[in-house]
């Protein structure tokens, strides 16, 4: 399931050899919010994780599979009406065996919504 272009769009991005920072506009009218939850939309955790993977794939121009989620913390819910834009900061390091060690933070200003640390495997 690709979320880019439908669930979120990239507003701005900045990339260095080890960091990718992206500003996203969330689509509060996306059908997923009709079930999660009617009248009180909340970005599902699985969508946050999928967004991190898609952004890392775009950054590296490679397909990835989640190998290990060492630490995943959902700090605050994202209401796409109240927070129509969020920023995602990815720090990554390529490792032997086609692994990509990654840490990510999804936030809006000082509010942190999710923190992730884990490893992806390059799959293609």
UniProtKB/TrEMBL annotation:
<dbReference type="GO" id="GO:0016829">
    <property type="term" value="F:lyase activity"/>
</dbReference>
<feature type="domain" description="ApeI dehydratase-like">
    <location>
        <begin position="14"/>
        <end position="92"/>
    </location>
</feature>
<dbReference type="InterPro" id="IPR029069">
    <property type="entry name" value="HotDog_dom_sf"/>
</dbReference>
<protein>
    <submittedName>
        <fullName>3-hydroxyacyl-[acyl-carrier-protein] dehydratase</fullName>
    </submittedName>
</protein>
<dbReference type="InterPro" id="IPR054545">
    <property type="entry name" value="ApeI-like"/>
</dbReference>
<dbReference type="Pfam" id="PF22818">
    <property type="entry name" value="ApeI-like"/>
</dbReference>
């Amino acid at each position: 399931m690709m979320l880019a272009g439908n669930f979120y769009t990239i507003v701005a991005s900045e990339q260095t050899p080890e960091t990718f920072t992206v500003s996203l506009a969330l689509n509060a009218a996306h059908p997923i919010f009709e079930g999660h939850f009617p009248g009180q939309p909340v970005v599902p955790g699985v969508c946050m994780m999928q967004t991190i993977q898609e952004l890392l794939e775009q950054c590296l121009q490679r397909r990835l599979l989640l190998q290990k989620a060492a630490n995943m913390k959902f700090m605050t819910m994202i209401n796409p009406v109240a927070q129509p834009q969020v920023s995602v900061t990815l720090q990554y390091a390529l490792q032997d065996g086609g692994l990509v060690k990654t840490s990510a933070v999804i936030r809006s200003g000082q509010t942190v919504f999710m923190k992730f640390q884990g490893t992806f495997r390059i799959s293609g």
